[in-house]
Amino acid sequence: MTNIEIRELQPQAIWRNFANLNEVPRPSKDEARVIAFMKAFGEGLGLETFVDEVGNVIVRKPATPGLEDRKAVILQSHLDMVHQKNNATDFDFDSEGIKMKIEGDWVKAEGTTLGADNGLGVATIMAILESTDLPHPAIEALFTIDEETGMTGAMGLKGGILKGDILLNLDTEEDDEIGVGCAGGIDITATRSYSLEEVEEGKTGYQLIVNGLQGGHSGMEIIKGLGNANKFMNRFLLDGFENYGLRIEEISGGGLRNAIPRESVSKFCIDTIHDEAFKADIEEFSAVLKEEYKTLEPNLKITLEKIDLPKRVMNLSVQEGFLKAIQAAWNGVYRMSPDIENLVETSNNVARVSVKEGNLEVLCLTRSSVESSRTDLANTLRSVFELIGCDVVLSGEYPGWKPNMESPILQVLVDKYKQINNTDPHVAACHAGLECGILGQNYPDMDMISFGPTIRGAHSPDERVSITSVQKFWKFVQEILKDIPLK
Questions:
Q1: Which of 17, 151, 167, 301 can bridge 126 by disulfide, Cβ–Cβ 3.0-4.6 Å?
Q2: Is residue 197 pLDDT above 50, yes or no?
Q3: CATH match for 186-398 among 3.40.30.10, 1.10.238.10, 3.30.70.360, 3.90.1310.10
């Protein structure tokens, strides 16, 4: 399938705009091209369009005849997307458009993230802005930047810019869910330098690769207990260190903070005298790990191969502390909500581990809907890494979004969903970070809600969106806009 065939899917207004958007590179913190694209889109429609001082794009469209007396609605989605690809995929995010394909009811990308998060929301807003026959109240389209790596667009949006009364955030990933709350988060970065030691005689060089994991969104999918490549790798390395004299040359595992790590690669040496025993141990331990995760990670792959002997390796005392710190660093669900069934309250993702040429770095993202619990886990992780001499920085903190079950727009959405689908929607808070909590700081009286089509595997190359779900979502959006409350 080609992107041309994607454009023919129904509703064409959404898929055409999504295909156009996916031709524009839009990584977080490098959104100049997509900002220009969206600004040109709004201006091309003859609508009031401007870019605020941090790069958010705002487009205003008057109400259609007969709906001028309704409250103004802000439709909000973020422009940036997570850029992730499989190691075997030859693709340049900086110069190529996303290559899409259809598999049954799903639209996917060829070995990369799809950008449905949050490109489907963006494309839906574009379809509404360009429509000539869709009834709606006054619309204020808010396209934020940098949602995926800091939410700096939402943070930088000043009070007083937006005029709307109701905000519809189109960034939820289950089409039967209406979002009323979300988790806040904080970035944890641990770094330190270390001295290098010359490799002694009697050593053999190896490379170990852990891959084939599912990965995914470190908020929405953390509850699944999926494998973390960094934690898996550390189990092998710690065992090798304690039993076979393993000495680390370098480690590169994971990537973005908000993606569960799928792959890790390490280079090291062991005492040659233990060579056969070490290989047998790796094989045995691999089988144990695959058995542990056979249901969750059926494609887990562990590959050991000999390489040239490293010339220098990590300082011995630093290496021991580092391996034990990674082993101790909490990963996954820390606490479930005692108030909302099946909601993760607090979690951490050990997202990135890098060891190379005298410098180590560990990146984590801690999330929680309860600020005190988030602080507790962040301090736990900070303590672990400070105990081995790391400098630890806590940054990028953003607030959660407290549910308002008395929200007027919530009642509109619940009623419309039941009317259209003959069943109740799932009203819930989520463990992902949404921009609603941040936007609510400068717009405390704004009535906010979040919903969207069904997306699976966000933040990973397995990202996909349901075609029938987009159709369901589009009908839902249109019906909501017809029934916005009076001013």
A1: 17
A2: yes
A3: 3.30.70.360
Going by pLDDT thresholds of 50, 70 and 90, the confidence category of residue 2 is low
d(CA 389, CA 177): 44
Q: What is the pTM of this model?
A: 0.76
How far apart, in Å, do the first and last CA atoms of the chain sit? 47
432 — pLDDT class (breaks 50, 70, 90): confident
Q: Provide the 8-state DSSP code for 200.
A: P
pLDDT digit string, tens, across residues 137-183: 999 999 999 999 889 999 999 999 999 999 999 999 999 999 999 99
Query: Which residues are marked as active site?
Result: 80, 147
- From residue 408, alpha-carbon distances to 215, 342, 404 in Å are 37, 25, 9
pLDDT band at 1 (very low <50, low <70, confident <90, very high): very low
**CATH (one of 2.30.110.20, 3.30.70.3550, 3.40.630.10, 3.40.50.150) for 3-182+400-482:** 3.40.630.10
Residue 50's beta-bridge partner residues? Answer: 58
